[in-house]
Each structure stands twice: as C-alpha cells, then as structure tokens.
Amino acid sequence: MEQIVVDPDRCTGCRSCELGCAVRHSKAKTLLGAISESPLPRKRLFVETFGGRTGPVICRHCADAPCVKSCISGCLYHDERGFVRRRKERCIGCWSCVAACPFGVITPDPVLGLAVKCDRCHKSAMPACVEACPTGALTLADLDAVAAAARRQVLAAEAGQKKGA
Amino acid sequence: MAATTDATIQAMLDRAAGEGIDLAWDRYQKQLPQCGFGELGLCCRHCLQGPCRIDPFGQGPALGVCGADRDTMAARGLGRAVAAGTAAHGGHAKHMAHTLLAAAQGKAPDYPIRDEAKLRRVAARLGIATEGREAAAVAAEVARAALAEFSEKETPLAWAAGTVTPGRVATFARHGVVPCGIDSTVSEMMHRTTYGVDADPVNLLLGAVKCALADYAACHLATDLADILFGTPSPVATRANLGVLKASAVNIALHGHNPLLSDLVAQVAGDPALVAQAQAAGAADGINVVGICCTGNEIMVRHGIPLATSSVSQETALVTGAVDALVVDYQCVMPSLASVADCFHTRVITTMPMAKLPRALHLELTEGEARATAFRIVGEAIAAFRQRNPARVQIPDGSVAAVAGFSAEAIVGALALLDQDDPLKPLVDNIAAGNIYGVCLFAGCNTVKVPQDANYTRMIEILAGHNVLILATGCASGAFARHGFMSPAATDRYAGDGLKAVLTAVGQAAGLGGPLPLVLHMGSCVDNSRAADVAVAVANRLGVDLDRLPLVASAPEPVTEKAVAIGTWAMAAGIPTHLGVAPPVLGSPAVTRVLTATVKDLFGGWLLVEPDPEKAAQALLAVLAERRQGLGLSA
Ligand code: SF4
Ligand code: SF4
Ligand code: SF4
Ligand code: SF4
What we know:
The complex is a heterodimer. Chain A is 30% helix and 19% strand. Chain A is an alpha+beta fold. In chain A, strand 6 (107-109) and strand 7 (114-116) form a beta hairpin. In chain B, 50% of the residues lie in helices and 11% in strands. Chain B is built from 26 helices and 16 strands. Chain B is globular and about 65 Å long. The model of chain B has no long low-confidence stretch (mean pLDDT 96). Classes of the chains: A alpha+beta, B alpha/beta. Residues 4, 21, 24, 44-45, 58, 118-121, 127-129 of chain A line the site of one iron/sulfur cluster.
C-alpha cells in the first residue's frame, strides 16, 4: 500500500506543498486561475515549525481513524482504497472531527461550513503535495518498502556503533 | 510541450539528448515545479528578517514581518526588476560613452568616428554647436553630455526628454516620472524598495515608470553612440539559423550585447594574414564569424554577419561541435556555456572585466588595445580549430536568407525615395488609407516556457495578414530571421494585399527589385529606441501624441529584467504592450489592475498579458482598430 511519507529533515519550509494542494482543490487547477476564485480553494496539509524543526503535517489516513469515529453524521468514511474521505453533503459543521484528529489536519471552512481534509488526491496518481515538493520531503512510497528501509537502517546504525566502539 | 520550432535547433537538442548534454530545457524540467510564491511576486528577501511570503489563498500570512502586503511586495519586486534592466542598459550605454570620449581624445585609435553625420545630428539635438567644428571636438562634447546623463542632473535626461514628443514630456512631468539621471534613478529605485521605505504600490509603480524612462534614455544613448562609432545600419542581405556555421571554416561565434569588441572582431576577421593562417590550419574557407543574441544583432545589422541562433538556444551553437571560439561580452550569457563547451573543443572567451565565466579564457577588452585583442581572439579560434574533431561536427542544413539593418534613418531614407520632400507622407498616407492597418514592434527574448519562436511565428502570420507593419529588435528579430520571415519571399507569402503593395513599392523604389522583407529588423534590444524614433517622427508629423497612434508592441516570449524595463517604458510611451509570459506580479490584484488597466488613463499604454498567440494577435488587432477609430480612420 502506498502512503505519503514525510521526511522533515529534507523540508526547507518553502510551502510549495501547501500551494500545490490548494491549486489541486481549485476549480481552475492552475495557480493563476486559483488565486482569483471565490471562495478561494483551501489547503489540506500544513507546514509547521516548532523547536527548530520544520515539516509538513499531513493526514495519515488512519486505519482506526479518530475523526471517522467522532463523526456522528456519517460524513467521514474509509473509501475502497482506505483513504479517509468526506461525503460533503452530510457534513453538519459540528467540528467534532477537527477536535478528534490527533494531528490537527482537519480544518473548518468558515465560508462553506464544511470540514476540510486531505482526500489523498484520490483522482490522480500523484498527490499534489508530493508533486510540488522540490526536496523530496514528501514522497509517495510503498509502506512495506519504507518499513524494510527502516529495518536496514537499524542494522546500519548497529554496525556503525560496533565500529565506533 | 515542444522545446523549439526551429528545426536546426531541434536537431541539436536531439543530439544533446543522445549524448546526455543538459541544456536550458533540461534544467528547466529539473526546476519544476517552480515556486508559486515567486511566480506570483509574493515573496520578499529585501531584509534579513525575511524571507517573507504571503499566502495567495488567504489561510496563511497576509503581511510580511515589516507589514508589507501583497501589493507592496509585488510592486517592489517589479520596481527592482526594472532597476536591474536599467542598470544593464545603462552599463552598456556607459561603456559606449567612455569609448567615444577616449576616441575623441585620440586615446582609442581602433575606434574612429564612422558616422560623422550622425554625430552632428545627435550633437545638434543636444544643443551642442557643430558649425565649423572638428568631429573630435564635437564627439568629446557629446561623450561628456552622455556621461553626465548617469549621475543626477538638475535637468531631465536629454536622451529621454529630447527624443520623445512634446506631449509625452508633458505627461511624464504631470505624473512626476521625469528621470534626471540614469544611475541615480536606479539607485533611487533600490533605495525606495529597501526595508521600510516606499510601501504605496501606486507610488512604487510610478517610480518603476520613472526608472524605465531612464532605461529608455540609456537604450537611446547606446544606439546613438554605437551608430557614431560603428556606422548607422542600412539594409544588408545575410543568412540565419545554425546552418550558417561552416565545417570548412574557423567558426567564431560572438555573443552578448555590446558591439565594442564584436564589431572589431567582425572587422579583423577578413584580415588576409589571419585568413591565410586559418587556411594553413586546414580551414579551406578561412574564417566564418557568426552572431548570437544581441551582439549578433549588432553585427548583423551593420556588417551582414549571419545570425546562428538566439537567447534560449545559445548552447545549441556549441552542440554542433563546429564552433571554435565562442566570444562573449555580457548579458544573456548562460553560465552553462563553459560546461557545454567542455563536451567539445570549443574555446569560450570572456572579454569584460565584470563578466567572467568559471573555466573560460579571459581576454580583456581595453580601449587602447581593442584591435590587438580582436586579433588574439581570432588567433585563439584558429588554434582551437586545430583541435577540432571533424567526426564530432554536425551542422544542421538549411540556413535561410534574411535582410536586416533597418535603422530609423534607413526607413526614412527608403520612404524618401517615394517622397523626397516629405518622406513620412507615404507611410502616413498608407496608414490612413488602411494599406497599413497599424504597426507592431516585436521585441524580447525566447524562453523555456514557450516552444521557442512559436508565439512570434503565429502572431506575425495573423498580424501581417491583417496588413500590420512589423518591426523587430533583439531576439524577436532572431526568431523571425531564423524562420525566414525577414525576406521579400515572406512578404509575398504572408503580407495582406495592402501591406504587400506598400512594401513592394518601397522595395522597388529602393532598387531591391522586389518588396521589403516582411519584418524590418531594427537591431538589438537597445535599438528599440530606433522604433521609438520612427513612432515619434510619425506622431510629430501627424500632430498627435504617441498614445493615439495605431502602434502596439509585443514581447511574446520574454525573459530578462531588461525586457521588463523596456515593456514598462513602452507602456509609459503610450504603446499598448503585449507580454506572452506574465511578470511576477499577479499575486497582487491591485498591481495587476494598475498595469493592465489604470495605467491607460495615466499614460495611454498598458500591459496586455496573454499566453495564447492567437488571442494575443486578435487582442492587438482590436487595439489597433480602436486607435484607428480614435483618429477617424476606418477600423
Ligand atoms: S484527519 Fe486526522 S484522524 Fe482523520 S484520518 Fe487523517 S490523520 Fe487520522
Ligand atoms: S494528498 Fe492531496 S489533498 Fe492530501 S495534502 Fe496532499 S495534496 Fe492535499
Ligand atoms: S514542499 Fe516539501 S520542502 Fe516545501 S514545505 Fe512542503 S514538505 Fe517542506
Ligand atoms: S522587507 Fe518586510 S516583507 Fe521583506 S523580508 Fe523584510 S520584513 Fe519581510
């Protein structure tokens, strides 16, 4: 299964991912067109900085999703690919999901009165944020491969320690 | 998206791709996606509290740390671009002025006064006495007047106020945009855009206009002095595109903008001793000098030196493997040239103390030893030719004919053949009769963001077909020349009936035995001043100001800050100006509105941003129709 993987060490804080996300969720689908739309399109991921660390914070599309559980109207659901999505017409603007998400990546749209969240760009092969990121801080990767790479890192780190010792 | 529409360049792109040589288009792909904040003009690095960005979608910050909003940022950014463009044209013009002074003082024997008549005309315009005076004395005074233009004077720039219509001078004064010094205006723009100075977007944009008018003065000054030192262009037949390189000759490509060195290389390349040396090295056809970019234009319009290629495709000249020396001065010289040259035997030679490339050979141009430097450069080219690997040479076939060299003087001269007493009358009458529907000046560059030349070639087909007279400068002329639009044959093929009749009548009178070319090549980008001269003469002849003429301008594939400066002064001159690529200001609705609409009420010209060449041509035709109606002419 492919997931958006974040490597905060590579993030320069340029916010291109935020722009890309907003443009993908515009009518025009172009930057120049999107900036003059009304209402303006909204981004679904957030570049934050804290304690000297900068990186994008993005929906994890949790398997056991607190937002889905908190949603009493049946708006939020898991689609067939496991992406946590909205049935827009069912959102009643109670903002329970906003409070429930441990990552803080659902935001209320004050104009439309809807909860706004990452839809994993389900209509396209490549999420807009990943496409926009110039440094590789956001990548689309196979989760098993990510785990395998992490396991090899463990070995590499141990080998390094032995050498150092 | 195709990279280019020039088949000779495409052949070299294919070769480069096959050999793994990265060119501008490849580097552009690696840059994608480009930063949206920068594209919109919504980032600022003018102080160390930044960089600051403004969220165009309104969820993030609306103000920089200092409180600058999107309008301030975009206007400041544009102002700095204009200042940089003005600094470039100003630097070029200043080099010409120093050389003219040295020439007048007998310190630059390689730079004789070649066009004394022009010297005297320029002097007369400046109010400098010419009667019974030696050329050297007049030249010294003109050069001093030129140098005085750079710092702050108590009077308006002579090369701006003295070369436009009285109506423009009044308009500029009314809006407080009269420049009194070229460098001082650049400096003022840097001052007002630094931390905590000018934050009012409209005031900043007026400042940008003032700076752009200093750019206009610098361009005009550079053109005038180049003509005095090297001669005023007149029509000359030559050829264009990469096919002008010769396998059997030592190929020297001259690239950049300033004619100070390139003209001398063009002059010495025919020296019998050098030619014999080249032949001894095995180059049966001796020495072949070709041009690239505006240096190419300068020597094309004066000496008929063929044009190999232009701006965005400059690297492809090297990919032929046939260029022995690439000699550059400054501006639009890609830093990548030295690394592309590494794939071949080509020697890259820099010549200006302020413009060096890592790993290039530097042979500095000095006024006192210019000719000697030119000889050394040719010698280096011959030495490089000996190292050329003939198996690596791939020159695309099919160079095309081009007629270039239409200075304002040459155009008026050609018209005078129809009416000696009132040379502008045939032009004015034909505009009135609708044989010439209007005039479009094409200027600017080529960019990786547009398939090279595609906008130029599509727009000219439409406009010329509607009887619009086409003028061109800079890499716009390169585009037309390389595609064969600068020929009498193109007039027969593309011009509407009215335009064809006029170009044919003038061409016949000039003894060309056929029409003038479809595009009148006026020179390099500083030579946009030549187009301004023609427009001013026509306006004065009609007794109307520039903002009423059926005259438009277009930079359909712009790149440089110099193009931004030129576009800004064209707009202020009252000329509706099309841009095929938007400058980075669209993140500010206020700045966008001022440049595309409000400015029309102030100066009569405005910017028309339209990436689609069909729509752009139609929009320009609509503007011309409106202008014609305004003059009581048929639309
Ligand atoms: S919005 Fe938050 S809780 Fe819901 S799936 Fe995404 S990360 Fe999990
Ligand atoms: S996957 Fe799509 S919707 Fe989600 S944050 Fe990225 S760009 Fe936005
Ligand atoms: S685009 Fe990439 S580098 Fe830029 S802020 Fe987003 S995650 Fe960081
Ligand atoms: S000048 Fe203002 S907007 Fe620009 S970087 Fe400094 S604080 Fe930010």
